[in-house]
TrEMBL record, chain A:
Protein name, per record: Coatomer subunit gamma
Protein family according to the UniProt entry: Belongs to the COPG family.
Annotated ranges, domain Coatomer subunit gamma C-terminal: 768-882
Annotated region described as Disordered, given as residue ranges: 589-614
Main localization (coarse): cytoplasm
Automatic annotation (TrEMBL), chain B:
PANTHER family, sorted: TSET COMPLEX MEMBER TSTD, ZETA-COAT PROTEIN
GO cellular component terms listed in the entry, alphabetical order: COPI vesicle coat; Golgi membrane
Domain named AP complex mu/sigma subunit: residues: 1-137
Name of the protein this chain belongs to: Coatomer subunit zeta
Membrane recorded as keyword: yes
Subcellular localization: Cytoplasm; Golgi apparatus membrane; Cytoplasmic vesicle, COPI-coated vesicle membrane
Length: 885, 147
């Protein structure tokens, strides 16, 4: 592009106006790419076209298969040119185009030629390109060259081969593992970057061989590591070795090495060592002190990244060793005014964790100034930290509550305001002295609250807590104001709250009645309906009399009906002489739809919003079962399984079953859906054959009277089983019912029906059904505190297995326990693995399990099982489950 | 893993982006999160002044050079300090290629070379090169001088 000869300053105006890619279009660029086919190549022009292609790709433009293939084929012709700049661009664009397997062959010979070229730079780039686009077959052909390249005297070539190895290890581990000797040699390289890459690759190759990693660490900690990046890697690997050595007492191996790294000249290394020390399990104050000292120095560094890293690490340390961090408090306080708000927020929250009671007031003053200029997400973190501080120092509730109420009045988004309101509500519940002032703060907030959700939440809370205060009348004004000033949703909530005051405070009743009567002229149906309902329920004459217990239950009690069912019934209700009967709403809980249950548990990485927790169905199951008289004497429900499908998808009848476990009983809840519009099923039950479940004896069965089209219904079968025994067995199931034809035009069923049966899948009760998955946050602490009294240890041979991971997963599923600390994940090709499990066994007995696996060359897996529990018999039961399987 | 390297102009228009190991559906979240962070903090910041943040176990370091905003995102071994190293070498290379902190126009003029620099520095989420002299030669297929 020709540039006019102008002075630099004049040039700037033009610069802002024109982009070299202004008006760029994919079609035109693809046309331009035809220059790659010219017999007389113009390297400069070709480079420009490649740049345009790169720009398009970086802008998110995608090429169709045909376009990409055409461009790729044209690009391969550019290998004819000897122009270095163009060749470099060609290497890049081939990588960006990611040719498909059948296209790669076109370029392989050119790249192989470059890989054996005498020009080092051709070699390095050809390796990188080949490894990016190659598959396993081609890799075996070029393996020899790659191994040579790893020990090439040119560091660029060696690095290219090593980084290729790091990537290829994911796809072709068997091949890359064969390069171990060469990589080992490269670790000794005098070139800093080669050593860094070689160390990373070698550790990944050997990561499952604990001894080899330990040897590697031992030799390198004594030798020379040339780059800070490699030294950081070494520190990480050292921490891993320390973690796995499980040394509980005496001198920790390699601690001296970590400590010596605190005096390294590179800040990156110092920080890595300090962090490694703070993360040592069971770290002592003596070990911690030098690390904290360097982190403290970093707090006053001029580099924001160092300050951030230091304060973030200290923030973590403060959770477990708050006393160790108190020395840094002065430096930390100065960070409150740091320009980087992430640093300031971390400093504040650390101070809130480490501060003592006497410093709370001073701290709050500093935070007040700080709050006005940070974003909502930081403010939420601070609010949560203040809530914890208040619960820690309840005597300081006054200043902390004032702080919360002040920030509640300031500008802020919904999430932030919700965090504050939630905090105030928690403080009111946990600190009785804080109740009155807290409620008044909330009242003032709803006077000017723009969030309907928060207003209704506060009104609901006021209705419960307000009447219990010494002077309930002072809240009425705030509540009644809502009836005048707010939208219909809030007005309706305010009416309910008024009614609660009326029901609980007899002296206020006449005045509440006056207010409620005014509400019956409201413009909104719901508000009027509520006012009328409450006036009638509470007794409209407004006398100062005590409210009935039933009315209080109605006002304050739970609805006791699944809202989904209520909604369906209300939708189906047609206005008639007969009023809607709430008792007609089914109380059964509709099981989750199939699609939801079978959706893969995909975990969003990065910024993905956290998945919402599953709805708590346990309470609903408990309520449902206790409402059935036949099951009322079964005692407390221990566990309900997730639904198990007993029919294929899209069959005539969809049936799944939930297993409810009691101490001496098991109840099968069959959730049935009739998917045929022309049929009405009646008297639906499941006939269970328990001949393969000897310990179980059927005690009762509860059929569904009627099962219309697409309406869920539940039938139950209950079994008795011996107390304290983890009885297991297989049950075969047959759905039995009377089927009646339905006239599609009228929707009416014929009077006569035919008895029919439908075979369902078998169902098993397994040992895992008697175990609840309950995790522990710190397994080691839980294990130690459980003590050795009821520890039972034994070893088992699991026979030949597909892989170690498969064996680990099988045992976890067998026991039905919660894996802790991510130990359910087994590293690829690992030869040994420790898995930690936690759970609660039938009878509410806590159980912890430590499983140690080892796999031999013949794929035979051996397992050591250690169980600790609160009850010796449960430990035995766990071993029995494993030995019987 | 270096999850992302993203370069935008001061209005938040993406000039170059490289994601590694980030699902396609999450990329737009990242893009808008990074661009917002830049818009909030980088206006008026000094050239190559570093800004840092973290979200759960993911770290973000970002800076401005000339009219161009530069963001790097990492996790695990690519913590804030490693990212600072990465961003330092990227800014140094951009400066070398452009001869000065670039305007958007200058950056686009040197677009091809800058893509080559990035290709030398980061390869699919792994830091490959950290020496600016060497990178400066490698993008022209010239061997490094210090062998």
């Amino acid at each position: 592009m020709a540039q006019p000869l102008v002075k630099k300053d004049d040039d700037r105006d033009d610069e802002a106006e024109y982009s070299p890619f202004l008006g760029i279009e994919k079609g035109a660029v693809l046309q331009e790419a035809r220059v790659f086919n010219d017999p007389q190549l113009d390297p400069r022009r070709c480079s420009q076209v490649i740049t345009k292609l790169l720009y398009l790709l970086n802008q998110g433009d995608s090429f169709t298969k045909v376009e990409a293939t055409e461009v790729f084929f044209s690009v391969t012709k550019l290998f004819q040119s000897k122009d270095l700049g163009l060749r470099r661009m060609v290497y890049l664009i081939i990588k960006e185009l990611s040719p498909s397997a059948d296209e790669v062959i076109i370029v392989t010979s050119s790249l192989m030629k470059d890989m054996n070229s005498k020009t080092d730079m051709y070699r390095a780039n050809a390796i990188r390109v080949l490894c990016r686009i190659t598959d396993g077959t081609l890799l075996t052909q070029i393996e020899r060259y790659l191994k040579q390249a790893i020990v090439d005297k040119n560091p660029v070539v060696a690095s290219a081969a090593l980084v290729s190895g790091i990537h290829l290890l994911q796809t072709n581990p068997e091949i890359v593992k064969r390069w171990s000797n060469e990589v080992q040699e490269a670790v000794q390289s005098r070139a800093a970057l080669v050593q860094f890459h070689a160390l990373a690759l070698l550790q990944q190759i050997r990561q499952n061989d604990r001894l080899a990693v330990s040897k590697l660490v031992t030799s390198l900690t004594r030798g020379t590591v040339r780059s800070p990046l490699a030294q950081c890697l070494l520190i990480r690997y050292t921490s891993q070795v320390i973690r796995e050595s499980n040394t509980q007492t005496g001198d920790r191996p390699f601690y001296d090495f970590l400590e010596s790294c605190l005096r390294h000249k590179a800040e990156m290394v110092i920080f890595e060592a300090a962090r490694a020390i703070t993360e040592l399990s069971g770290v002592t104050s003596r070990e911690l002190t030098p690390a904290i000292t360097v982190l403290q120095l970093f707090l006053s560094s001029s580099k924001p990244v160092l300050r951030f890293a230091a304060v973030r690490t200290l923030n973590k340390v403060a959770m477990t060793h708050p006393m160790a961090v108190t020395n840094c408090n002065i430096d930390m306080e100065s960070l409150i005014s740091d320009q980087n708000r992430s640093i300031a927020t971390l400093a504040i929250t650390t101070l809130l964790k480490t501060g003592n009671e006497s410093s709370v007031d001073r701290l709050m003053k500093q935070i007040t100034n700080f709050m006005s200029d940070i974003a909502d997400e930081f403010k939420i973190v601070v609010v949560e930290a203040i809530r914890s501080l208040c619960l820690k120092f309840p005597l300081k509730y006054r200043s902390l509550m004032n702080f919360l109420s002040n920030i509640l009045r300031e500008e802020g988004g919904f999430e932030y305001k919700k965090a504050i309101v939630d905090s105030i509500v928690i403080l009111i519940r946990d600190i009785p002295e804080a109740k009155e002032s807290g409620l008044l703060h909330l009242c003032e907030f709803i006077e000017d609250c723009e969030f309907t959700y928060l207003s209704t939440q506060i009104l609901h809370f006021l209705g419960i807590e307000g009447p219990k205060t010494t002077d309930p009348s002072k809240y009425i004004r705030y509540i009644y104001n809502r009836v005048h000033l707010e939208n219909a949703t809030v007005r309706a909530a305010a009416v309910s709250t008024l009614a609660k005051f009326g029901a609980m405070v007899d002296a206020l009743k006449p005045r509440i009645f006056v207010l409620l009567r005014r509400c019956i002229f409201d413009s909104d149906d719901e508000v009027r309906d509520r006012a009328t309902l409450y006036l009638n329920t509470l007794g409209g004459d407004g006398e100062v009399v005590e409210t009935d217990k039933d009315v209080k239950i109605f006002l304050f009690g739970d609805l006791d009906i699944p809202l989904v069912n209520l909604e369906t019934s209300l939708k189906n209700y047609e206005p008639s002489e007969e009023s809607f009967d709430i008792d007609s709403v089914p109380k059964e809980v509709k099981s989750q739809p199939l699609v939801e249950k079978k959706a893969p548990g995909k975990k969003p990485a990065g910024l993905g919003a956290p998945p919402a927790g599953p709805p708590s169905t346990v309470d609903a199951y408990e309520r449902l079962l206790s409402s059935i008289p036949e099951f009322s004497n079964f005692g407390k429900l221990f566990k309900s399984s997730s639904p198990v499908e007993l029919t294929e998808a899209e069959t005539e009848y969809a049936v799944n079953v939930v297993k409810h476990i009691f101490d001496r009983h098991v109840v099968f809840q069959y959730n049935c859906i009739n998917t045929i519009p022309e049929q009405l099923l009646e008297n639906v039950s499941v006939i269970v054959d328990a001949s393969e479940a000897e310990d179980f004896a059927e005690v009762t069965s509860k059929p569904v009277r009627s099962l219309p089209y697409d309406t869920p219904g539940q039938t139950f079968v209950a079994f008795e089983k011996p107390d304290g025994i983890t009885a297991v067995g297989k049950f075969s199931n047959t759905l039995r019912f009377i089927v009646k034809e339905v006239d599609p035009s009228t929707g009416e069923a014929e009077e006569d029906g035919v008895e029919d049966e439908y075979q369902l899948e078998d169902l098993e009760v397994v040992a895992a059904d008697y175990m609840m998955k309950v995790g522990v946050s710190n397994f080691r602490n839980a294990w130690e505190s459980m003590g050795e009294d009821f520890e039972r240890v034994d070893e088992y041979g699991l026979g030949p297995r597909e892989s170690l991971a498969e064996a680990v997963s099988a045992v976890i599923n067998l026991l039905g326990m919660q894996p802790c600390e991510g130990t359910e994940a087994v590293a690829t090709n690992s030869r040994s693995h420790t898995c930690l499990l936690s759970g609660v066994f039938l009878g509410n007995v806590r159980v912890l399990v430590r499983l140690q696996f080892g796999i031999e060359g013949s794929r035979d897996v051996a397992m050591k099982l250690a169980v600790r529990s609160e009850d010796e018999a449960v430990g035995d039961a766990i071993h029995e489950i494993v030995s019987c399987s | 893993m270096l999850l992302a390297v993203l370069i935008s102009n001061s209005e938040g228009n993406i000039l170059i982006e490289r994601f590694n190991g980030v699902p396609a559906e999450e990329r737009s979240h990242w893009r808008s999160f990074l661009v917002k962070s830049g818009a909030d903090n980088l206006k008026g910041a000094r050239n190559e002044e570093l800004f840092v943040a973290s979200h759960k176990s993911v770290y973000v370091v970002y800076t401005v050079i000339g009219d161009v905003y530069l963001y790097v995102v990492g996790k695990d071994e690519y913590d804030e300090l490693a990212l600072a190293e990465v961003i330092f070498i990227i800014t140094a290379s951009i400066r070398d290629v452009c001869q000065k902190p670039p305007s958007e126009r200058l950056f686009l003029d040197k677009y091809g070379r800058i893509c080559l620099c990035l290709d030398e520095i980061v390869w699919k989420g792994v830091l490959e090169n950290t020496e600016r002299e060497r990178i400066n030669r490698l993008i022209r297929l010239k061997p490094p001088t210090n062998i």
